[in-house]
What does this fold into?
Amino acid sequence: MRTLSDSLDGLVAPVVPVGQPTGEGASAAKVLAPNRLDELLLQSIAAGDKCAMRVLFQRHNLRIYRFVLRLVGNASLAEDIVSEVFLVVWRSAGRFKAESQVTTWLLAIARHKAISALRRRPEAQLDDHTAAAIVDPRDDPETRMDKQDRSETIQRCLARLSPSHREIIDLIYYHGKLIRDVAQIVGVPEGTVKTRMFHARKQLSKMLTAAGIHGAC
It folds into this structure.
């Protein structure tokens, strides 16, 4: 299995995340709005800046990995797909048009890669529990405990949603995407996203309430 380091000739660390950028990257992140920083990083990457590539990877590899893992349900395959996503970024940064957020662009690439991989490997199954169990180093102790207490029940309910409904919930709640962003990532009209979101929330709310979790969606 090729790692991201192999694919990009050592430009970045291995796939499983390390959290927020440090040093100059962290200082810049405090000053610039997140999307503007991402756009500037892409501009630098397009010019061949390996340091910018590392910072972008550190900022977003965890979110991309979690999203892909929920789709493919296989950690090894998810790592390979994340590698492919950031390889595309390295090769195609100059073609980003800033018509959407950088994270929307990254998630759209990731979704395309994940769906292509699933078509090649139909035996792959969803594993929401594994995805939720990955620790985000930015979480404080209280948040981590809360996630541990509620995660298993919530993920079990999510797994009972249809794939199209689960995907919408994932993008909007876990990745904070707007309706228009989700429409772009999934490739359907905004009205379709709204309809799926309505039904997904309704079904999920019923399941969570029955499980004793209130106000989660």
Notes: Residues 2 and 80 are 7 Å apart (CA to CA). DSSP finds eleven helices and no strands in the chain.
